[in-house]
Amino acid sequence: MIWDELETGLEQLTTAGLLRRRRVLDTPCGPEALIEGRRLTAFCSNDYLGLANHPALITAVQEAAARWGVGSGASHVVSGHLRPHAELEERLAAFTGFEQALYFSTGYMANLAIVPALLERNDAVFADKLNHASLIDAAQLARAEHIRYPHGDLEHLAARLARSSARRKLILTDAVFSMDGDLAPLPELFELAERFDAWLVIDDAHGFGVLGPGGRGSLAHFGLPPSPRLILMGTLGKAAGVSGAFVAGDRRVIAWLAQRARPYIFTTASSPVIAAALLTSLELIAAGDARRAHLQRLIGRLRTGLAGLPWPLLPSPTAIQPLLVGGNAAVLHLAEALFARDLWVPAIRPPTVPVGSARLRVSLSAAHSFAQIDELISALRERAANAGDSGEACDA
Q1: DSSP string covering 251-295
Q2: Per-domain residue ranges for the chain?
Q3: Of 241, 312, 356, 362, which residue is the least packed, with the fewest Cβ within 10 Å?
Q4: In contact, 226 and 155? CB cutoff 8 Å
Q5: What is the rounded average pLDDT of the residues 354-363?
Q6: 0.85 exceeded by the pTM?
């Protein structure tokens, strides 16, 4: 029976240390979480600027609900495109420097929209092997040839682009890789896109709001100006503190997506309350240099404090700080030991990361304090010392 197969599959996930667990929070998103009556310091969310519970956003939502209600009632192309949606798209285009922008309900939907709408048979997409699942799914949904290149390997990518006879070519990459925290070499990727007449599609989920002057993202961080061959996707539920995503680019690309992107056309538009909140969020991001500077100081403090541990930090300059442990059982054991100390750090395991590279993914926020960082450093150092004294293996 299929039900027995599902039960067996769940048991196998549990045995392999791969079963995911949801925890119910009784507090808003922030550096502290109340779970089952326990108050913990959380290093889990992507709320990089600490805006998710900002009073200005709460006020914006309250005022927008009184003015616009809470539902859009239809898709954008029918009757669900309200004034806050239109204003948000205009503001996002101006903020990123592109001609136009299109607002989506989620980042996953935005990514699923781009590649299948732009490519057909006899086209090719060239994708970094560590791309987010939504980018992988987008490439698979397209009818184009899907070519994956080793992470950050520009030489390999150039060779594959040179050999390709595809009518249209598209390079697909994260800007900040969500599980490693490293940055894609965007200037070099853009040069390849220019050389081989390809689009360059960039998922800036973890860079938007955090990197670059004024928080304008990874393209601004590298000093890359907008170009007709650049297509930018940015999520609005991470540093922006709300939800949704956008695609920004050349006006012809955005017009085509509005006509052909199925995740845009065939879904109800998000609440106008969300769009109104994001208009306020963009103002906070633009004025958020102090938050970004504090976040950078937290990153430096953590990396200095965790240097020399048996679990190495991956070379990330971003708010994503992965501590490489190795095995599933070992990373779960370490995460549980921290949880017992009222420190919540998620254990990331396959298939999210390659087999043998399970890790603690420490996510930092400008809302964290130095004391909270020091508490995590102390707990991990004590755990490493106790493991060494007892002869416990450090599975790295």
Answers
A1: HHHHHHHHHH-HHHHTSBPPPHHHHHHHHHHHHHHHT-HHHHHHH
A2: 18-49+289-390, 55-286
A3: 356
A4: no
A5: 95
A6: yes
